[in-house]
Amino acid sequence: MTAGQITATQPVPEAPEQAAQPFGPKPRRISPGRIGLYVFLVVAALFFLIPVYIMIVTSLKGMPEIRLGHLFNLPGEPTFQPWVDAWLHACTGRDCNGLSPGFYNSVKITLPSVVISIICASINGYALTFWPYKGANLLFGLLVFGAFVPYQVVIYPLIIGLSSVGLFASLPGIIIVHTIFGMPILTLLFRNFYAAIPVELFKAARVDGAGFWRIFFYIMLPMSVPITVVAVILQVTGIWNDFLFGVVFAGRPNWPMTVQLNNIVNTTTGVREYNVNMAATILTAAVPLIIYFVSGRWFVRGIAAGAVKG
Amino acid sequence: MQKSWRRRFHLPAVIGTIPMILVAVGVFVIGIGFSVLWSFTSSKLFPAYDFVGLAQYRRLWADSRWLVSVNNIWFFGLMSITCNMVFGYLLAVFMDQRIRQEDLFRSIFLYPFAMSLIVTGLVWQWVLDPNLGLQAALRNLGWSSFSFAPLVDAETAIYALVVAGIWQGSGVTMAILLAGLRGVDEDIWKAAKVDGIPTWRTHLSIVAPMMKGAFATAFVLQCVSVVRVYDLVIAMTGGGPGIATSMPAVYVIQLITVRQNVGQGMAAATMMLLPVLIVLAFGGILLWRRNRGAVA
Question: Do the Cβ atoms of B171 and B89 come closer than 8 Å?
Fold first, then answer.
């Protein structure tokens, strides 16, 4: 339920008629309050920006320069060697192949998971809205309940279930897991979207003799582009950023980028190469950040949609 | 009209939703059922079916690591949700003052949310690293007695997690609350101004109550992410120093994978599920009563 719907049901205090335009044009002077406002916003922005500034600057420095301890200084002699090392040579235990295998693994996990989970969820949402069969709403209720359940309650049964069919610690296994945990929120998203479509459209197609799949493919799917974009953004960032499922279900050869990153940074023995570690971290964050900055307001809409549970 | 279609049993609809049936029943009912079932057994690495009653729960509540985890999640939850809501609300209110460069500020406040919690954890691990981060930097600037190393101290490490959580999550709260603020009718502001009510009073007494929905949404989102907090702890502290920042989510995974004590792990997982179930049941009853009231 969105904020708009709730506020719309509140009694609205009536504004006195004679007070329509009492104050004239808004003053445009710079008041102390205005300055305080911007000071607050800028300080807050610095809080959000400084950690990433430190990361970028440090990743461009050599280790001797980092040891000098001038955290906030721009790099004296910028070098891209840490980035190359992070991508190709950084070590996790005995393997020194850098982050790149993790990147390809993440791509291999993310693409099929996103496609499969969105296909499932769109069919679910469509069936729940237009073809509810007996018990369908109970199933949906269970699914929404699943959106709130702590993952830890479900992980071990899933390990046992997947290993009994030989899919534990494999690429198909992790794809199945992402599809399962993406389903509650995506189904909700698509169901709410289809519920807003006029039912007359569906009835007209029924009268013309179209069946379940034909209505889905020829009428509903072409209309679903906006919600699909939101779902793709939500899923790509969510699955790319996942750590827990990757480390448990993917198996060592398929470990996604986040797991590799954590291993590179947190299991190093000996000298900590901060510049390489930070370059690796930025590389891992790059994909969702690019999506965020390209998609802009769609991303916010995705969050709002994802946040609207029930 | 629609009723007659609704009543009928459509095979394609059932076939199309087979994945949903499998997930809803297979994972969220049977799976959870097995988790609870195993919590009453002495399962070690593999599930066993020798029932030992509540022994695992007794062992669980005698384990200091679990007690620390439970304390931590309450502290972390209360602190981070409160700070997030207050900070997010302030940001939203300030963003709503027809400021310049609103999109720029919005992007800055929100971008950490796009990143993995692993990334957030590592970033803050470095900022707070005494040999590299703020402490080293300020000492270099001449303040040689400056001491700030929260992650090294068992007492303060959890505060560092809270700060990282705020850094990651308050932008979302801001975005949701800002949408709520924008949904409030312009005339209400005018009316309050005419009546001579100070702006802060209008915010607290009139507008904030009208944004209940937005607050609830942001709150629920925060709660869900607090219960699930795992990646952040792993990346930032690994649960340390010692067991100082262990969390229930971390505890369960450790029992399953490292300590190979599934019975007790499932007991801990069931304890995690319990408050969620209670809250959901409570919310369900509230919704049901409201719907019934609306019909009557």
Answer: no
Residue reference for tokens 């000298």: A271
Q: Is A53 near chain B, with CB under 8 Å?
A: no
Are B190 and A142 a contacting pair at CB < 8 A? no
Select from A165, A191, A189, A187 the least CA-distant residue to A176: A165
Q: State whether residue B92 is helix, strand or coil.
A: helix
Which CATH number belongs to the domain containing residue A221 in this structure?
1.10.3720.10
What is d(CA A139, CA A159) in angstroms, rounded to the nearest whole number?
A: 23
Residue labelled with tokens 């610690």: A169
CA distance A97 to A283: 15
- Mean predicted confidence (pLDDT) in A71-88: 84
What is the rounded distance in angstroms from the CA atom of residue B134 to the CA atom of residue A54?
Answer: 10
The number of distinct structural domains making up chain A is 1
> Can the peptide bond before residue B241 be classed as cis, meaning omega within 30 degrees of 0?
yes
A7-16: b or e for each residue (b if 16 or more CB lie within 10 Å)? Answer: beeeeeeebe
Domain annotation covers residue A30? no
- The helix/strand/coil state of A250 is coil
- Nearest CA-CA partner of B15 in A222, A228, A127: A127
A171 half-sphere exposure, CB direction, 13 A CA radius? 12
Backbone angles phi, psi at B33, to 5 degrees: -55, -45
Q: Decide if A278 contacts B123 (C-beta within 8 A).
A: no
Query: What value of ipTM does the predicted structure carry?
Result: 0.87
Q: Report how far residue A171's alpha carbon sits from residue A101's, in angstroms, rounded to the nearest whole number.
A: 14
**pLDDT, tens digit, 9 for 90 and up, residues A177-221:** 999 999 998 999 899 899 989 999 999 998 998 888 999 999 999
Q: Please answer whether residues B162 and B237 qualify as being in contact, where contact means their C-beta atoms are separated by less than 8 angstroms.
A: no
Residue A266 lies in a domain: no
**What residues are paired with A95 via a beta bridge?**
A92
| HSE (side-chain half, CA atoms, 13 Å) at B146 | 16
**Which 8-state DSSP code applies to residue A27?**
P
Per CB-CB distance under 8 Å, the chain A contacts of B139 are 69
Domain of A223 in residue numbering reads as 102-256+293-307
All residues at 6 or more sequence positions from B55 whose CB lies less than 8 Å from its CB, including other chains: B42
pLDDT in tens, B176-194: 898 888 888 888 888 888 8
Go through the domains of chain B in sequence order and give each one's CATH number. Answer: 64-285 (1.10.3720.10)
Residue of B nearest to A37 (CA): B94
As beta bridge partners, residue A92 has A95
Instruction: Give per-residue pLDDT as tens, B7-53.
Output: 566 888 888 889 999 999 999 999 999 999 999 988 888 888 888 88
Helix (H) or strand (E) holding A240: helix A225-241
The SS3 of residue A187 is: helix
What is the C-alpha separation between A256 and A237, in angstroms, rounded?
13
Phi, psi for residue B51 in degrees, rounded to 5: -80, 135
Any domain includes A213: yes
Asked whether residue A276 is domain-assigned, the answer is no
Strand partners, B51: B41
Name which of B167, B206, B269 is nearest A153 (Cβ-Cβ): B269
| φ and ψ at residue A201, rounded to 5 degrees | -60, -45
The tokens describing A102, both together, are: 């993790």
Q: Would the CB atoms of A37 and B97 count as touching at under 8 Å?
A: yes
- Shortest Cα–Cα distance, B210 to chain A (Å): 6
State whether residue B211 is helix, strand or coil.
coil
